[in-house]
Design brief:
Elements lengths: L13 H14 L7 H15 L4 E5 L2 H12 L6 E5 L5 H8 L3 E5 L10 H11 L3 E4 L11 H9 L5 E3 L7 E2 L2 E2 L7 E5 L12 E5 L2 H10 L21 H34 L21 E4 L6 H10 L27 H9 E4 L7 H10 L2
Helix pairs in contact: 1-8, 2-8, 3-4, 3-7, 8-11
The structure holds pyridoxal-5'-phosphate.
Length: about 375
Amino acid sequence: MKQTPFLRPNLVKKETLLPYLTEIEESRIYSNFGPLNSRFEQRVLEEYYECDGAVTTVNNATIGLIAAISQCKRPIGKYVLLPSFTFAATPLAALWCGLQPYFVDIKPDDWCMDENQVRELVHTLGDQVAAIVPYATFGTNINLDFYQDIHESGIPVVVDAASSFGVNENNNYFGKGFPGCIVFSFHATKAFGVGEGGLLYSANKNLISQVRQAENFGFSSTKEATIQGINGKMSEYTAAIALSTLDEFPQKVKSRKQIYTWYFELLDQKAFLEKEWKLQKTKGEIPYQFMPICCPLDIKNDAVIQSLATKHIEARTYFSPPCHQQSIFKKYPHTPLTVTEKISRQILSLPLWEEMTQDDVQRIVEGLG
Ligand SMILES: *Cc1c(COP(=O)(O)O)cnc(C)c1O
């Protein structure tokens, strides 16, 4: 019987990479913000951000979050406000910056951090808030106006936009003009996959140059370590994959949107959405990383996963258990996480990868029951 894996990453083919590899051989530059890396950054800045602000590549988004939070955090603060409904990398980045995660609930419709709770915590915790790290859940566009106001009031905001590269709303790519830091992941499991990699954007050029210094051992222009840095640089080989991916990305986005549409139409046709199955309320055009859906409360997500497995369909449950239920994070403070706990019992991540056919989607939807 046909097997349907959860993900089947489709990185650029070696033939596409060859001209770039030849360039690397000729330049003998393998890393340290080399020529391919610079070309990639320049293209992203022009093609996605109309040269408004600055970008820097990074060797993965977790290091990107650490570099950004460490450079922005308020020195007297101790907490990072972030959702529990996220990947462990978000609160782990707070820990690596010597800060404590403070978990905030999400909203029932878009599964993003609840702004009202953030506002209240900012009020009650005052100077103890070192930074705020919202997550643009599963690539949706979040309301950055709210966070821009907070950032401009003096509490730094770093957005975990792990799967949001290429998200577009009203002809603007996600994050454009935002004065805090936006952190994208290019992990193989994301829509813009290069293996391991990431990118940071901010409308604030100084902030990006500071983060860039942090990811290069904290070296100043005189090669002296002046801030607590790390090695977060992207290699030229990865930059070669990133440049090739940039050319193919519009096609990738198109395929992913098509598969989402098939899912949506079938779920609708088969009346799942009337039977208490719920999709995330999203904004903008999203290059879906996978297909998230909540099952009805009276069915447990684990049971659906098992039933799909008997039909040779592999599904997951991102993010279940949510971070605050994972052992390393249990001791940290949180607001009442009612919605997070409810959704983490219902959430399913269904397969969505570029070569999937309408038949694959149909088998999966039928497999849901
Ligand atoms: C993938 C992901 C990360 C980590 O990105 P890496 O590039 O793998 O380090 C962080 N946060 C979220 C929400 C993610 O989905």
